[in-house]
Amino acid sequence: MSALARLGLMLARDPYEGLQRVQSASGSIAGFGWGPVKYVLMFGPEANAFLFANSGLFTVREAFDVLVPVNGETALIASDGEAHRRRRRLVQPAFHRRRVDGYIARMAENADALLDTWKEGETLDVYASLRELTRRTTVELLFGDRLAADEELLGGELQTLLDGIDRPYSQLVALRAVPNPFWRKVLEARATVLERLEQEIADRRMDPAPRDDVLGLLLDSRDEDGGGLTDVELQDQAISLMGAGYETTSAALGWAVHFMLTTEGVWERARRELPPGPPTAETLKECAYLDHVVDETLRLFPPVVMSARKVAEDFVFEGHRVPAGAMLIYSPYVTHRMASVWPDPDTFRPDRWDPASPGHIPATPASFLPFGGGQHRCVGSVLATTGLKVTLARLLARTELEHTGAPVRPRSITAMRPRDGVPVVVKEVRPA
Question: Can the keyword Oxidoreductase be found in this entry's annotation (predicted)?
Fold first, then answer.
């Protein structure tokens, strides 16, 4: 069996262990493949720093070609060069921290509405419950109340879209190559979402009253020449942001609750730190330990296990020549679990993020990259981390939960989430 086939089988069977085994055996760089089919895996902070500092050596359009039928031709994740820079400049202001701070009250209200439905003594999958909350809040914040009224419909179609790209690369290539019922369903789901978005965009162009949701900000955004996003660009950004926004955030919420309930003292310490009253931008700044919990969760279970670039020009890294045309893979997951970077890497230890803690090692953009890095770093990272803190703060303030002890294992490489959920017993729900 070829090295490439062995790698493919290993990653399909267990991508997490498979990637770590490749790094352990090969160090910072490994190559697989033959002829025109070449894969290069690069691991660790030095490799990440090289990748982010030399973006001109790579393209993302070819690397993420399999995602284009779902996310769209103009989505940031599949854009390169000046087109990417222009779109990012137009999209980024909608996710500035000042804008995100204005969403905190809605995030807290929605979390409280969910907790009001929980019953003391019941056993529930807290991940599934928080996933529905995150989806509803994401649709409201991105697209306003009118589209939020269709949240259940949009959520179902969005899940079909996400299922369409939540598969190994080889499967995605095969599904696109041959007509099949699964891929037809994915494309039909995208058409349904697009139809609703087109109507919403048309309605807003007819009634240009200012709106504070992300879609309103994107409609109003202008570059230095006075140009804005086209309708196609708006639709593509909307679909990719909507899908990524709730899938990755809800996965991180599930892992955070799991670790907070199964690591002695974490839940109690995080709750003691909370200021009284609903969270605000100012009171969240006082929750340093909750920040550490969020960072440690994203270190152990980053939203994306691995990402890719297509090599556009030959280059040399640590004495190894990498040819143009190769597919380059890098892995936040592996970097975050390298003992040479993060001592005791498999242990959930929020204190490692405290500058006053013994053994604290400052993170860098190359050693801690849950949202990627460089020019293609996730534009919604502030929205995601703020949503995590607000939801966890309301859980801590209002509930007592007990983990059932059932094993919690990961699945997926596009949004590493708990495979069978996070079952908990609701011991108490306090009034808002």
Answer: yes
Give the whole-angstrom CA distance, residue 257 versus residue 403.
9
Report the CATH fold assignment for 3-429. Answer: Cytochrome p450 (1.10.630)
Report the Cα 238 to chain-centroid distance in Å.
Answer: 15
Specify the DSSP class assigned to residue 105: H
User: Residue 268 class from Cβ within 10 Å (0-12 exposed, 13-18 middle, 19+ buried)?
Assistant: exposed
Domain locations in the chain as residue ranges: 3-429
What is the rounded CA–CA span in Å between residue 14 and residue 26? 18
pLDDT the model gives residue 10: 67
Report which of 201, 193, 276, 269 is spatially closest to residue 231, judged by C-alpha positions.
Answer: 201
How far apart (Å, rounded) are the C-alpha atoms in residues 135 and 216?
19
In the block, residue with structure tokens 């152990």: 300
Tokens 């907790």 sit at which residue? 115
What is the pLDDT at residue 274?
96
Quick one: pLDDT at residue 2?
54
CA-only gyration radius of the chain, Å: 22
Q: Are 4 and 33 in contact (CB under 8 A)?
A: yes
Q: Return all residues near 246 (Cβ < 8 A) that are at least 6 apart.
A: 131, 134, 135, 137, 138, 139, 158
What confidence score (pLDDT) does residue 7 get?
Answer: 63
Residues in the chain with pLDDT values less than 70: 1-12, 34-37, 151-154, 168-170
Tell me what percent of the chain is helix, strand and coil, each rounded to the nearest 5: 55, 10, 30
Question: Which two three-digit tokens encode residue 339?
Answer: 């003992």
Amino acid, res. 383 = L
The helix/strand count (H/E) of the chain reads as 18, 12
Query: pTM above 0.85?
Result: yes
- The values of phi and psi at residue 356, to 5°, are -85, -5
How many other C-beta atoms can be found within 10 angstroms of the C-beta atom of residue 208?
10
